[in-house]
């Protein structure tokens, strides 16, 4: 026994820093937040055990919570579907035989993902300004009515969604491109010999083989969309805007924790967010993967 321990002591010692850091900065905060969700605490004073009161108040007496849930889902819907569709189109173009300078275009499309999101949000803020914004300037020049992007409940969601689309389309396109390049060309040659048209090849070869990749991007987009914070925080502020149309779940969580110092209540919001992401990801998985065995 001691000989076996000595034999494997060195490798386990080498990987131990990762596990120690994970326990301290990963596992402990998760477990502590669950413990905190059943308490009332302002961050400095004595903790008070309140049982399920935080969750009960969250679900029954907090309209701002449900408003933030609705805002988050609407922004996710407005951003994810166009984003993944555009990413698939971009991936097909980058994979096409007639496309030149493919590596250059890949870098260009991926560039928004590595650009500072704070800088991007500030630039987009100049686009969506109500008085001097670029878009409203263009609308006025061609005789169209201007839009109050920041203060209108619906249009602020569109503005945030456009930022998300711009940032993540190239990232998902690169993932789709990797999936397309993994499909053997022999399948398309055989389908062409059998008389299959381009649309038939897409629906019966490309799409089924890309299904795991599509599921992966949908799950990632769901997790990211439910945790949206930086874009609305920079564009409309931590309050979610004058009409709270940009108030997302994570923004609301941040306000409760670091604005109102209700850390127990914020922990309850965090665990509700975890449940929402888990359920929504499961539903997306079932929807995207249905018929996989056919």
Written overview of the protein:
- With 294 residues, this protein is mainly alpha-helical.
- It contains 12 helices and 2 strands.
- Strands 1-2 form a two-stranded antiparallel ribbon.
- The protein starts with a helix and ends in a 5-residue tail after the last helix.
- 25% of the residues are buried.
The sequence of SSEs as H and E is: HEEHHHHHHHHHHH
**Stretches where pLDDT falls below 50 for ≥5 residues?**
none
Please give the radius of gyration in angstroms.
Answer: 24 Å
Quote the average pLDDT: 86
Regarding quaternary structure, what we see is: single chain
The largest sheet, given as strand count, sense and whether it forms a barrel, is: 2 strands, antiparallel
Q: Number of helical segments?
A: 12
Total strands: 2
Provide a short characterization of the protein structure.
It is a multi-pass membrane protein. The protein has helices at 2-36, 53-60, 63-95, 102-114, 117-127, 134-141, 155-181, 185-193, 198-226, 230-236, 249-259, 263-289; strands spanning 39-40, 48-49. With 294 residues, it is mostly helical.
Layout of SSEs?
Layout: H1 2-36, E1 39-40, E2 48-49, H2 53-60, H3 63-95, H4 102-114, H5 117-127, H6 134-141, H7 155-181, H8 185-193, H9 198-226, H10 230-236, H11 249-259, H12 263-289
Antiparallel strand pairs: 1-2
Relevant terms:
mainly alpha; two-stranded antiparallel ribbon; 12 helices; 74% helix; 1% strand
């Amino acid at each position: 026994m001691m000989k076996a321990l000595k034999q494997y002591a060195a490798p386990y010692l080498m990987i131990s820093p990762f596990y120690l850091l994970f326990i301290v900065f990963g596992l402990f905060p998760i477990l502590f937040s669950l413990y905190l969700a059943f308490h009332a605490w302002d961050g400095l004073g004595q903790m008070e055990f309140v049982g399920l009161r935080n969750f009960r108040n969250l679900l029954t007496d907090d309209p701002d919570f449900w408003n933030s849930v609705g805002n988050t889902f609407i922004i996710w819907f407005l951003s994810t579907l166009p984003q993944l569709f555009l990413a698939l189109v971009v991936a097909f173009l980058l994979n096409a035989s007639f496309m030149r300078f493919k590596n250059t275009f890949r870098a260009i499309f991926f560039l928004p993902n590595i650009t500072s999101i704070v800088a991007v949000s500030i630039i987009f803020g100049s686009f969506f300004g109500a008085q001097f914004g670029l878009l409203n300037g263009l609308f006025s020049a061609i005789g169209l009515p201007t839009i109050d992007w920041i203060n209108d409940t619906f249009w602020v969601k569109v503005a945030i969604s456009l930022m998300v689309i711009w940032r993540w389309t190239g990232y998902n396109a690169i993932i789709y491109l990797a999936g397309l390049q993994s499909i053997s060309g022999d399948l398309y040659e055989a389908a062409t010999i059998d008389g299959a048209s381009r649309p038939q090849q897409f629906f019966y070869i490309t799409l089924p083989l890309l299904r795991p990749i599509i599921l992966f991007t949908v799950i990632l987009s769901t997790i990211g969309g439910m945790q949206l914070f930086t874009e609305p925080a920079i564009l409309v502020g931590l309050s979610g805007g004058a009409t709270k149309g940009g108030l997302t779940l994570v923004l609301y969580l941040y306000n409760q924790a670091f604005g109102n110092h209700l850390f127990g209540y914020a922990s309850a919001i965090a665990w509700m967010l975890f449940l929402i992401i888990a359920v929504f990801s499961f539903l997306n998985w079932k929807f995207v993967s249905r018929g996989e065995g056919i």
